[in-house]
Amino acid sequence: MSADEFDPQIERLFAQSPSFPDAAVFAHSLEARLERTGRLRTLAVTVAGVVGGVVAVSQGLGSNLSLTADAGEAARVSNIGLANAATRTQQAVEAGLADFGVNLDLASAGGMPIFWLGAALLIAVALTGAMRLSQEL
Amino acid sequence: MNRSLADLHDVELAARAAAGGRREFGELARRHGSAVRALLRRMGAQPSLADDLAQDAFIQAFQRCAEFRGEGTFAAWVKRIAARLYLKRVAKEARFVEEAAAPDEIGPTVDHIGRVDLDEALKGLSEAERLCVSLCHGGGFSHPEIAAALNLPLGTVKSHVKRGLDKLRARLQGPVGEGRSANVG
């Protein structure tokens, strides 16, 4: 703004705003809109989390990991690695659960129950995270 | 310590709103809603459109509240968001007619006790002059910013602002010898 444009009276007039009689209504309606937007966002994030979890589970079921002896040498070596990792994970989970007083023998439970337990835990964690995230947003 | 929202400074409320505080943001809207609505009307928006755009501007401000650092005032920040929304709308509707004439009939801009009515005085400006003057003096836009936003040459924007201000000054003088330095209403 150049010096000849500066006019204290006009500046003052623009700085002042009329008070609208429906100012409170405007603010209430804005708050309601924010509330609605927040709920929609929470719903969208939750649905996305559930869909993601379901996709993850279905992908896990469809991966069809083979632990049979007729696999190639490379697959056999990698399967041994996977089996070792699974065993170590089982032991870690058993130890963790034991700290909370829960004694479970996951090795005797078989593969599928553990898989479903893990999937359920993952979905629960994803849902909790989604809810917290939506509250923060 | 549990202070009421009315006691909190805008910057503090904005920080809480950035963390998801809708009530705090509601307080900001209560404080500055009228200023944003008034600016949009002064720019030339019809009252219902001005209110809708003001709401959109506040929603955007809520979503981007973390960007507000308190360098300027919160009201000025939301006003800029609102002004940009209106400019987008004007560009989209291709409604902006650079040389649109000002209406012939406007109401008095200075009342019998010398209070001036800026909103009434702005009606005496052409659409382009009104938009440019309001953006410059009400929205805090610089001339180059206005030129870029309206896709007009810088010289044209400067002319609009100058002509608009000259008209405003003439309108705000009121009847000869009355209320130049009187109350502002």
Write the layout of secondary structure elements.
The complex is a heterodimer of chains A (137) and B (185).
Chain A: H1 8-15, H2 23-62, H3 73-99, H4 106-109, H5 111-136
Helix pairs in contact in A: 2-5
Chain B: H1 10-18, H2 22-43, H3 47-63, H4 74-93, H5 118-122, H6 127-138, H7 143-150, H8 154-173
Helix pairs in contact in B: 1-2, 2-3, 2-4, 3-4, 6-8, 7-8
What brief labels describe this structure?
heterodimer; A: elongated; B: 185 residues; mainly alpha; Arc Repressor Mutant, subunit A; 2 domains; 8 helices; disordered C terminus
Could you please describe the fold and organization of this structure?
The complex is a heterodimer of chains A (137) and B (185). Chain A is mostly helical. Chain A has five helices and no strands. Among the domains of chain A are: 40 residues; 30 residues. Helices cover 77% and strands 0% of the residues of chain A. The longest helix of chain A has 40 residues. Chain A is elongated. The two termini of chain A are 39 Å apart. With 185 residues, chain B is mainly α. Chain B contains eight helices and no strands. Chain B is elongated and about 50 Å long. Chain B folds into two domains: 95 residues, Rna Polymerase Sigma Factor, Chain: A (Orthogonal Bundle); 86 residues, Winged helix-like DNA-binding domain superfamily/Winged helix DNA-binding domain (Arc Repressor Mutant, subunit A, Orthogonal Bundle). Classes of the chains: A mainly alpha (137), B mainly alpha (185). Chains A and B meet through helix 1 and helix 2 of A and helix 2, helix 3, helix 6 and helix 8 of B.
